[in-house]
């Protein structure tokens, strides 16, 4: 047997030695230590409860409070706060640490995995959390397609899941699976969820408080208004320090920033460079500017289709021509976008995986790279038969002008700014572009009613999920269904590489396969990465005394892998708790002077999460 045993409570280490961070990273650690006079101004929550409330401004809607359906970053982050997963990620270096499971082991052939479930985890209604809950969760996903909507890729290879006793979970696989130490599936209470009928319609948002076993308990929710959580006093790792955590919805980013300045909210993510620069001079406000874990992409509709072979949507047929896709991206000046739109708070995009994840980071070769070259773009279109007419418009072989639409998130100023640049650059090619900015882009997207779209995902230490969403298996079953696909891409060559990396335990070999997948994705031209934005966020130091970033050196606060930020946050005026938790909790917003590179080193941590500002909504 191959045995992996981890202490039930992580051992704290000084942040000088980081197995997964490349050498040479320089960071400045900032700790906000407000005086007693800098007490947080009262909020509505304070007035009612007399406690300290941490309010987070968000611009994204909650798609579902059902862990079986939720895919958006806000929703999945909330589930991280309210349910335990089998394992968690260390805030220092993202290595796997205990969650609901205290240890795990695999058979020599890697086909049987046994997890020891902790004895000190309880559901918020007082009942014990056991291996039976975990087995029921996985079995429901294996037998009900609707329960596999959000996280089905994790259980697709499961052959059998059993719970021989309350503290033992056994998962038998059809073939080896490289993500068994990071099954990012919220474990739900069987005694509550076994009463649910149709998993495709149950959003878990009608009865409160919602039973969970994470550090927080959801107590109230109003669509596009707020979501409220209270500390789980019986949480095995220790209760959070704030008396209430509130995610408050703001459609307008400037309104959220104004609320931060007034002290009405404690934290604001996804700042524009202009907002961040303005906030840096504000009293009692700290800005975090760290290398990000997400990408900003230009996605093209490859022809929406379902598993049953039927096509749907109204994507422009010219985009099915590789020459057109190539020409469009040759006419995108990414360096200008970094300088003018992101104002230097981003890195120029190339491969699918951001440079923060060193072992999987890929760059195109010199001959492969589609560098900015508008003259070459003209040549490519000419050679492909898309000539300019007397009015200077490119026309297709059917005589129709090349006029495209691009889906834009109305709440994201980057989308709008980049849309204007694309209109200018492509206009010189003779290609028209209509920028369609919507409050919700999900409806036209899932229907295939778009030509291009601004897209983006947060990427985790293991890229399995963000790669899986481009496989044929994630397409919707029929045009009427919704699949887990991001952009309807279905490429047999990509699928073959995905299948190989999924069962490869050798870290170097797996990294090479992941790079080959990125190369293939780049060459097809359906997903063009334009930038890797920094995490630009800010919080009030007179409300939050300290908070954990991930990674500790130059990491992000919002949208972490795990629950460290909000669980660790200490109210201003209180003594910072120095208890362990996979990270030093008294800490620390790191602002990097260099890109933090996270290396794989054989960790198989699979997870996806869309970036708040540029996912489908």
TrEMBL record:
InterPro entries to which the protein is assigned, alphabetical: Peptide/Ni-bd, SBP_5, SBP_5_dom
Stored Gene3D superfamilies: Dipeptide-binding Protein, Domain 3 (3.10.105.10), Periplasmic binding protein-like II (3.40.190.10)
Keywords: Membrane, Signal, Transmembrane, Transmembrane helix, Transport
Solute-binding protein family domain: residues covered: 95-468
Matching PANTHER family: PERIPLASMIC BINDING COMPONENT OF ABC TRANSPORTER (PTHR30290), PERIPLASMIC OLIGOPEPTIDE-BINDING PROTEIN-RELATED (PTHR30290:SF10)
Family recorded in the similarity comment: Belongs to the bacterial solute-binding protein 5 family.
The name this protein goes by in its record: ABC transporter substrate-binding protein
Organismal lineage: Bacteria, Bacillati, Actinomycetota, Actinomycetes, Kitasatosporales
């Amino acid at each position: 047997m191959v045995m992996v045993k981890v202490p039930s409570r992580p051992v704290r280490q000084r942040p000088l030695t980081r197995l997964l961070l490349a050498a040479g990273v320089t960071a400045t650690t900032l700790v906000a230590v407000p005086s007693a006079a800098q007490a947080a101004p009262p909020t509505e929550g304070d007035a009612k409860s007399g406690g300290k409330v941490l309010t987070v401004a968000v611009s994204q809607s909650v798609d579902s409070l059902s862990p079986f359906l939720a895919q958006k970053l806000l929703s999945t982050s909330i589930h991280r706060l309210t349910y335990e997963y089998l394992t968690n990620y260390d805030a220092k270096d993202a290595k796997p640490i205990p969650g609901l499971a205290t240890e795990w082991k695999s058979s020599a052939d890697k086909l049987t995995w046994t997890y020891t479930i902790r004895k000190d985890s309880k559901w918020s209604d007082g009942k014990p959390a056991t291996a039976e809950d975990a087995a029921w969760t996985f079995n429901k996903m294996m037998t009900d397609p609707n329960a596999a909507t959000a996280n089905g890729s994790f259980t697709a290879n499961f052959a059998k899941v059993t719970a021989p006793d309350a503290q033992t979970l056994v998962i038998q696989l059809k073939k080896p699976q490289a993500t068994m130490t990071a099954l990012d599936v919220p474990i739900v209470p069987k005694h509550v969820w076994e009463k649910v009928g149709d998993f495709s319609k149950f959003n878990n948002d009608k009865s409160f408080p919602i039973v969970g076993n994470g550090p927080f308990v959801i107590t109230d929710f109003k669509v596009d208004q707020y979501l409220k959580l209270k500390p789980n006093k019986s949480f095995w790792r220790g209760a959070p320090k704030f008396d209430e955590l509130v995610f408050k919805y703001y459609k307008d980013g400037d309104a959220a920033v104004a609320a931060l300045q007034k002290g009405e909210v404690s934290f604001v993510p996804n700042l524009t460079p202009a907002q961040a620069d303005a906030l840096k001079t504000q009293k009692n406000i700290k800005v975090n500017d760290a290398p990000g874990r997400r990408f900003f992409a230009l996605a093209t509709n490859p022809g929406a289709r379902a598993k049953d072979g039927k096509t749907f949507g109204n994507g422009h047929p010219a985009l099915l021509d590789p020459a057109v896709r190539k020409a469009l991206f040759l006419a995108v000046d990414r360096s200008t976008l970094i300088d003018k739109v992101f104002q230097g708070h981003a890195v120029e995009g190339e491969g699918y995986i951001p440079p923060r994840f060193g072992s999987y980071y890929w760059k195109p070769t010199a001959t492969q790279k589609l560098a900015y070259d508008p003259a070459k773009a003209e040549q490519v279109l000419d050679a492909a038969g898309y000539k300019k007419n007397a009015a200077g418009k490119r026309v297709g072989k059917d005589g129709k002008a090349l006029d495209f639409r691009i889906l834009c998130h109305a709440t994201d100023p980057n989308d709008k700014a980049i849309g204007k640049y694309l209109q200018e650059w492509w206009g010189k090619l003779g290609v028209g572009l209509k920028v369609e900015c919507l409050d919700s882009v999900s409806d036209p997207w899932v229907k295939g009613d778009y030509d291009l779209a601004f897209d983006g995902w947060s990427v985790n230490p293991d890229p399995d999920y963000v790669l899986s969403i481009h496989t044929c298996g994630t397409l919707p079953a029929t045009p009427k269904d919704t699949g887990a696909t991001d952009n309807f891409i279905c490429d047999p060559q990509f699928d073959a590489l995905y299948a190989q990396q999924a069962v490869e335990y050798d870290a170097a070999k797996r990294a090479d396969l992941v790079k080959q997948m990125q190369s293939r994705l780049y060459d097809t031209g359906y997903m063009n990465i334009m930038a890797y934005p920094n995490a630009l966020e800010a919080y009030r130091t007179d409300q939050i005394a300290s908070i954990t970033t991930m990674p500790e050196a130059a990491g992000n606060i919002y949208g972490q892998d795990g629950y460290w930020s909000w669980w660790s946050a200490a109210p201003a005026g209180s003594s910072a708790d120095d208890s362990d938790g996979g990270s030093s909790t008294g800490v620390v917003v790191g602002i990097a002077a260099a890109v933090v590179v996270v290396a794989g080193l054989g960790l198989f941590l699979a997870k996806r999460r869309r970036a708040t500002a540029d996912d489908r909504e």
